[in-house]
């Protein structure tokens, strides 16, 4: 009898040690197309294909306009220029022809929005996550058949409402939106005083858990959180391990999540 109790306690302790630090329920997002060969922020064709092979259901891209107003994937023009050997051009945007002719780190292929749309249209099992552009009209013009599989980070309450109304799969209010705090405070009084769309999802940096606004809001109402950018579960404070419903990552593999 005693032996069985001790064995049960040891088994429970071992299981606790094995699961400590894990986030069992969070959906992983391959950040900026996903990492490849130790490189991050490439937003490249090869990274996108690798992320799909690795088992990510959600793949994120940073979207920007070329100098001739075509939507493409790049985290910033200064980074793209540096990664493609044109660092002397600073943050100036290339035109589309120049953009697609370059190679990131001399090996990876830049992506236009049309390339991304084609890939996801052929992969109904995947969800497209976007950053930087949250205008519904722009997104629907480049990704006309994907809105039911698109997770969009909104950068204003106006964009947030339009995206929700237009039926995107998931709309997340960016923690970098200038009107975020004001909108969330109004949301606490939604039922009586605030006539707008209710905010259900917000993006949050790991450091944001300790902000006064988050601590207050987390006490009053539990928003769904998409946390960035986490490469090890240990980076999330233990008391907030279960608050992340989605996690942007460069290094956590889907098959290591459970």
What does this structure look like?
The structure is a single chain. The protein is of the alpha/beta class and 258 residues long. It is 32% helix and 17% strand. Strands 1, 2, 3, 4, 5, 6, 7, 8 and 9 form a nine-stranded mixed beta sheet that branches. Helix 2 links the parallel strand 1 and strand 2. It starts with a helix and ends in a 9-residue tail after the last strand. The relative contact order is 0.13. The N terminus is likely disordered.
State the helix count. Answer: 9
Strand content: 15-25%
Largest sheet: 9 strands, mixed
Instruction: Please identify the structural class as seen in this structure.
Output: alpha/beta
What would the principal axes of the Cα set say about the shape?
Answer: globular
Average pLDDT taken over every residue: 88
User: Could you give the order of the helices and strands?
Assistant: HEHEEHHHEHEHEHEHEE
Q: In total, how many beta strands?
A: 9
Proportion of helical residues: 25-40%
Gap from first CA to last CA: 33 Å
Radius of gyration: 21 Å
Pick out the low-confidence regions: 1-21
């Amino acid at each position: 009898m005693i032996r069985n109790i001790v064995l049960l306690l040891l088994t429970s302790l071992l299981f606790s040690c094995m699961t400590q630090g894990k986030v069992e329920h969070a959906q992983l997002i391959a950040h900026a197309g996903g990492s490849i060969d130790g490189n991050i922020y490439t937003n490249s064709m090869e990274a996108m294909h690798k992320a799909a092979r690795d088992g990510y259901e959600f793949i994120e891209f940073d979207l920007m306009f070329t100098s001739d107003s075509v939507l493409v994937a790049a985290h910033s023009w200064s980074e793209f220029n540096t990664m493609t050997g044109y660092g002397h051009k600073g943050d100036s945007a290339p035109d589309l022809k120049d953009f697609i002719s370059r190679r990131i780190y001399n090996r990876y292929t830049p992506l236009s929005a049309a390339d991304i749309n084609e890939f996801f249209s052929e992969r109904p099992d995947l969800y497209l996550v976007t950053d930087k552009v949250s205008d519904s009209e722009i997104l629907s013009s480049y990704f006309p058949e994907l809105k039911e599989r698109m997770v969009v980070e909104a950068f204003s309450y106006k964009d947030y409402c339009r995206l929700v109304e237009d039926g995107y799969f998931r709309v997340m209010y960016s923690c970098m939106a200038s009107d975020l705090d004001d909108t969330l405070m109004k949301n606490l009084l939604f039922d009586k005083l605030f006539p707008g769309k209710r905010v259900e999802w917000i993006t949050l940096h790991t450091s944001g858990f300790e902000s006064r606004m988050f601590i207050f809001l987390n006490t009053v109402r539990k928003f769904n959180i998409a946390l960035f950018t986490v490469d090890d579960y240990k980076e999330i404070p233990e008391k907030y391990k279960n608050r992340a419903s989605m996690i942007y990552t460069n290094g956590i593999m889907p098959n290591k999540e459970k």
